[in-house]
Write a structure and sequence with these properties.
Layout lengths: L1 E11 L8 E3 L1 E5 L2 E2 L5 E4 L22 E4 L11 E4 L5 E2 L3 H8 L7 E4 L15 E5 H11 L12 E5 L13 E4 L2 E10 L15 H10 L3 E10 L1 E4 L3 E4 L2
Parallel strand pairs: 10-11
Antiparallel strand pairs: 1-2, 1-11, 1-16, 3-4, 3-15, 5-9, 6-7, 7-8, 10-14, 12-13, 12-16, 13-14
């Protein structure tokens, strides 16, 4: 196996487009990180990905922080707890729906997928999203500012070893991290959501412009799961021969 580096950060986002939780360890299941993107707000009049509400439509969603409480099981996720921007603690309930509905003229509904639901797919175009510290440093050089990794909503941030193979060479290859194995399928094509500061909600179009002009609009890679298993911060990451 070809060593790449190690897991530096693990992020789970229990609610689509809400702020998430930074973890020391988590299990990778067939759909992605356990519990990731398992809750969402939808427009029932639409189908496919267009039915989901995202922070690019409602930026304030990024100010709501979601985390799972407890371990859960293979058949049921644990409850989700939401910290609102004003400090209120909310559950996945009507109070939260009223908060969100106040920011949209479209009627909203809430949906909660279980671990065995066939429509559960953690990241929009894949099971996991991975970025590297090397790409973050490259973007900092190109943009002239240090980018907050949370803008890219990756599940895993990999710290690359010196002279390690970068994402340019990962597509089509299999990675091992912890006890899990992933197939790197494609680049992540970036939208305007990365231009929104996750804390202030300030919109800076220059970041999106830099990514599109200097990096062909790509930042991070999508991966599908070939072998489930636990991962933790500090686990080594390899390309499997």
């Amino acid at each position: 196996m070809l060593p790449l580096g190690e897991i530096e950060q693990i992020w789970r986002y229990p609610v689509k487009s809400f702020a998430g939780e930074r973890l020391e360890s988590c299990r990778i299941e067939t759909y992605g990180l356990y519990g990731d993107r398992s809750h969402a707000f939808i427009d029932e009049t639409k189908e496919g990905w267009s039915r989901y509400f995202f922070a690019r439509q409602i930026p304030v969603m990024l100010r709501y922080r979601a985390r799972l409480i407890g371990e859960g099981t293979e058949r049921e996720f644990p409850p989700v707890e939401i910290m609102a921007p004003d400090g209120r603690t909310l559950g996945w309930d009507e109070r939260l729906l009223r908060d969100m509905q106040a920011h949209s003229r479209q009627n909203m509904s809430m949906i909660r997928y279980g671990p065995l639901h066939p429509d559960l797919l953690a990241v929009d175009a894949g099971s996991l999203l991975i970025v590297t510290d090397a790409s973050l440093r490259k973007l900092e050089h190109l943009w002239g500012k240090k980018p907050d990794p949370r803008r890219f909503r990756a599940n895993v941030v990999v710290s690359l070893a010196e002279n390690a193979l970068t994402e340019n060479g990962w597509i089509g290859k299999r990675l091992r991290m912890g006890d899990a194995e992933l197939q790197v399928d494609d680049w992540c094509e970036r939208c305007k959501m990365i231009a929104i500061d996750p804390d202030t909600l300030e919109y800076d179009a220059s970041l999106l412009k830099t990514v599109h002009e200097e990096m062909d609009g790509r930042f991070g890679v999508y991966a599908s799961v070939k072998k489930t298993g636990p991962i933790r911060v500090g686990d080594q990451v390899y390309v499997v021969d």
